Amino acid sequence: MKRASASLLPSITLEGSGPIYLQLAEWFRRAIAEGRLRPGQRVPSTRALADELGVSRLPVLGAYEQLHAEGYLESFTGAGTCVAAAIPHEGPATPRRRPARTPSASATPAPRRVAARVAAMAPPPQTWLESQGAFRMGVPALDHFPHGVWSRLLSRHARDIGTGALVYGDAMGHLPLREAIAEYLATVRAVHADAGQILITSGAQHGLQICAHALLDPGDRAWVEEPGYPGAHQALAAVDAVPVLVPVDADGLDVAAGLRRALTARLAYVTPSHHFPLGATMSAARRIELLQWATRTGGWIVEDDYDSEYRYGSKPVAALQGLDADARVIYVGTFSKVMFPALRLGYLVVPKDLLPTFRAVRDALDTCSPMLPQRVLHDFIREGHFARHIRRMRVLYAARRAATQAAIQRYLPDVLQVVGAAAGMQLTALLPPEIDDVALSQRAAQVGVSVRPLSPCYRGEARRGGLILGYGGVDERAIEEGVRRLRRCM
Ligand SMILES: Cc1ncc(COP(=O)(O)O)c(C=O)c1O
Q1: Is the per-residue pLDDT at 349 higher than 80?
Q2: Is the overall model pTM greater than 0.90, yes or no?
């Protein structure tokens, strides 16, 4: 540790690591910012300081040069080097940095002020994430992903990238990819849209954020499903919108309850193909009621179709967007489940008259999506790998879903009541009221089982306890073992 104390200078202590000239410059910056060195105050000559510190003059010269360049020091012929007179001075201030030594518990500083809405944006405690084991939600069968094909396409584009992929792209996304998505949606989801209406996003959550910014002002009310997807609440909180909790039953969102609670809400967020988290499919009658509400009141419907590619035992349910004659639905899709979540690509289908609004919001939020993955995904779809992968995964997930249901039937028949298993890569099982699902998920995490509790998906008072089991990324042996371990936690 090097120390020097010039007569009128606070003692200089260099105890960090790294080049001495950087440590010295950092010491001066901090001393000036904290008011320990005042504007106009003389600092020692480089020779004197080097002598006092017992170092060569070179690092001191280097530090002073840097501080001159940054405007902390200035020199006058005959007067030596001083702290720049232009630095504002308010007397010695409390250091802004935490003291090097750990403060005692009583000295813990109060949290500093941040935006109030952040509290509402925080997700519920995610205890289940403490385990990487069986039933982690939202994880596809990554070991069955055609990595070879993906990396071949990726290196083809990386090798031959061209300058077009290196500049700012269109806020709406890569047009050939948008064309491929529009065709796919028309065929598979009965969505009516041309490529011009597709906006590429960084996943469904980003799509929800864009919708909230484009459609809601602070204080606007929005229907959200109860229980529902916490990410929808996060998107509303980001724009200071007010969620109106609308219950969900076996037919999906209870539209009549929504009408009673907030007839003039600006927006309704729904997962009609596969309700998150209870798994209901919205009935035709409810779909029509919802569309009629939107037409009558000028409300918007955000349709989150996050995982409906996988549907078991019945044909895929057509998207709500395809029924909408009044262009009131914004359709949200994602590649997180059908490809992999880290790809961070999804899309919105935007009504034509809203395109300038959505383009402006997307541009303001994050400009555009990265070009390279969009190009690779486009080829992946056009060369038929995408459709093939979905077909293979549908068979695999059907088997894993059956294995999960069978294991529950074998080991926990009287405890878990499966409710939402018609689609997707996860199922929900209700627990008897006396079992605390959050505590159970914590115990499960300790034995390597990752189950998400149902009750935090409720925001109101009446909560059902249950577990959400993601089976997409778990093989059948691990499913059996996972349910056995879960039984031990009961
Ligand atoms: C209902 C629902 N919507 C949206 C998302 C977010 O998906 P993404 O990864 O595309 O942001 C999820 C993720 O699990 C989800 O369950």
Answers
A1: yes
A2: no
- Phi, psi at 210, each rounded to 5°: -65, -45
Q: Which amino acid is at 265?
A: A
Instruction: Give pLDDT, residue 317.
Output: 85
Nearest Cα to Cα of residue 36 among 89, 72, 76: 89
- Compute, in angstroms, the gap from residue 65 CA to the centroid of ligand 1: 52
Determine which residue's CA is closest to atom 7 belonging to ligand 1: 204
How far, in Å, is the centroid of ligand 1 from the Cα of 250? Answer: 21
Which whole number is the average pLDDT over 357-376? Answer: 96
> To the nearest whole number, what is the mean pLDDT of the chain?
92
CA distances from 486 to 450, 451, 480 (A): 10, 9, 10
Checking if the pLDDT of 106 tops 70, the result is no
Domain regions of the chain by residue span:
2-98, 121-138+388-489, 145-384
Q: Please report the atom of ligand 1 found closest to the CA of residue 276.
A: 1
Q: Identify which of 205, 303, 347 to mutate to test ligand 1's pocket (most ligand atoms within 8 A of the CB).
A: 205
- Report the candidate in 351, 304, 318 with the shortest Cα–Cα distance to residue 186: 318
Calculate the alpha carbon distances from 132 to 190, 445, 446 in Å.
36, 8, 10
pLDDT at residue 165, as a whole number: 84
Pocket of ligand 1 (CB under 6 A): 138, 203-205, 229, 231, 271, 276, 304, 306, 334, 336, 341, 346
Distance in angstroms (rounded) separating the CA atoms of residues 345 and 207:
10
Ligand 1 atom index nearest CA of 346: 10
Question: What's residue 97's pLDDT?
Answer: 52
The C-alpha atoms of residue 195 and residue 388 are separated, in whole angstroms, by 23
Architecture of the domain defined by 145-384: 3-Layer(aba) Sandwich (3.40)
Instruction: Please identify, in words, the CATH class of the domain defined by 121-138+388-489.
Output: alpha beta
- pLDDT tens for 127-165 read 666 667 899 999 999 999 999 999 999 999 999 888 888
What is the CA(337)–ligand 1 centre distance, in A? 8
Atom of ligand 1 nearest to the CA of 304: 3
Q: How much is the average pLDDT of 207-229?
A: 98
CA–CA dist 29, 88 (Å, integer): 13
Residue reference for tokens 């011009």: 196
For ligand 1, atom 3, name the residue with the nearest CA.
306
Ligand 1 geometric centre to CA of 67 (Å)? 49
| Residue of 334, 340, 426, 468 with the most ligand 1 atoms within 8 Å of its CB, for mutation | 334
What is the CATH topology of the domain spanning 2-98?
A: Arc Repressor Mutant, subunit A (1.10.10)
Amino acid occupying residue 272: P
